[in-house]
Structures are given as C-alpha cells and as structure tokens.
Design brief:
The chain is 50% helix and 0% strand. By secondary structure, the protein is mainly α.
C-alpha cells in the first residue's frame, strides 16, 4: 500500500505541475490535485511510522518474548506507552477492594488473588 501511495503522490504531483504551468490554470483541478498529493503524503507518513517503531531495550525484550506472535510492534508500542514498566522486589498490593483498577501485566513472578477469602491464584514462577 505504501508503494501505491507513493505512486499516487507522483502522479498527482505531475498533475499539479501540469495545471500550474498552463497559461490559464484551472484552479479547481489544481486544488484537487494538490489536495490528493497532501492526503497521500500524510497517509504514506502514517504507514512509515507504523512500520518503523523504536522500542527501548526493555520494551523490545518484553515484546519479543511475549507479544511478537500476537500483535505488531506499533500496536505494542501504543499499549506500552500508556503505562509504566515497574519491577517489584518485595510483596506489593496492586489493587484493593473499592479502588479503580488499572491494567496490570505480570511478566515474571507470581500474583495472589484473594477475592473475599483464601482463594489464591498463582501466575508465573513460584519462588
């Protein structure tokens, strides 16, 4: 699709040149061609931005180990940029009853869930 956008940009750029070099340029076709050049340039830039995503070393490690088969790097970057990456060295309460919960992703370690009793669910490695 990127090549199609670039081809359309070149074609409409030629039309802009053609219309603007006429003795009596037709303004409506000139404006329309220029508009399509701009639209295709923006869309091509969006495609390039999605294809070439920069992840930090930590983000790259998390992406390659857990998400590479499920989503693109650009989708992962959108999700990971909404939060923070934290490392807990000791037991820590993430959510308590009555509080608004955030999305929590545990990459390594374990979690205990006690919904009103002694129910424990272990995720990941147990120590």
């Amino acid at each position: 699709i990127l090549w199609l956008r670039l081809l359309l940009m070149c074609g409409y750029s030629a039309l802009v040149g053609y219309h603007s070099l006429q003795l009596r340029p037709l303004r409506i076709p000139l404006a329309g061609s220029f508009f399509f050049v701009c639209v295709n340039a923006v869309k091509a830039a969006q495609i390039l931005q999605e294809r070439f995503v920069r992840l930090s070393l930590e983000e790259e490690q998390i992406y390659s180990e857990h998400f590479e088969s499920a989503m693109t790097a650009s989708d992962f970057k959108k999700i990971i940029s909404k939060g923070t990456i934290l490392t807990a060295n000791c037991r820590q309460e993430l959510v308590s009853k009555g509080q608004e919960a955030s999305l929590v992703l545990i990459i390594d370690g374990q979690a205990e869930v006690a919904p009103g009793g002694d129910v424990k669910i272990t995720v990941g490695k147990s120590e």
